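stage 2 :: seqdesign
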């Protein structure tokens, strides 16, 4: 019984420690079989996630993927400008996902990473917040199209951050 209480206390303390470090994000810890994922959502949007009245409808097409990837690369590089090489390699450890709705604007944004990188990643939280603010409410209709707008509710897109810093996308 004592061991179980110690484990619960340890988990709660770790979760609290991550939550305490974030001034900009709501923090959600999701345990998996292998480890824990941490999800960060900017505080100013956590209550506007699209309401799911059915299954997520991904019936959308990225009609101009190269241009969209260049735009994402430019925004990511701008948000993380001035970070050192060690922090750039840390970007391999997390992804960001955004959700856009029938207005074709990004309405929800989150970062996901493994808990074991939390301390190192959280020192980049200001950069991550700046990145989220550049994407929120962005009109993405030039890059995506919906197959059947009468059925479309929302779609989610995930992008690895590290791609902006690989040699292929360097300027």
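stage 2 :: out
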């Amino acid at each position: 019984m004592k061991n179980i209480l110690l484990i619960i206390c340890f988990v709660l303390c770790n979760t609290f420690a991550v939550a305490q470090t974030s001034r900009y994000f709501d923090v959600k810890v999701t345990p998996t079989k292998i480890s824990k994922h941490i999800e960060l959502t900017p505080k100013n949007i956590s209550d506007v996630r699209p309401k799911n009245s059915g299954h997520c409808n991904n019936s959308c097409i990225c009609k101009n993927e190269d241009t969209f990837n260049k735009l994402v690369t430019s925004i990511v590089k701008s948000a993380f400008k001035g970070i050192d090489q060690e922090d750039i390699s840390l970007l391999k450890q997390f992804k960001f996902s955004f959700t856009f709705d029938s207005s074709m604007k990004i309405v929800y944004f989150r970062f996901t990473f493994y808990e074991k990188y939390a301390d190192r990643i959280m020192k980049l939280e200001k950069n991550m917040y700046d990145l989220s603010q550049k994407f929120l409410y962005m009109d993405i209709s030039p890059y995506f199209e919906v197959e059947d707008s009468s059925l479309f509710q929302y779609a989610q897109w995930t992008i690895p951050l590290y791609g902006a810093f690989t040699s292929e996308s360097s300027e």
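stage 3 :: structure notes
- The chain has one domain: 2-169.
- Residues 9-21, 167-171 have pLDDT under 50 and may be disordered.
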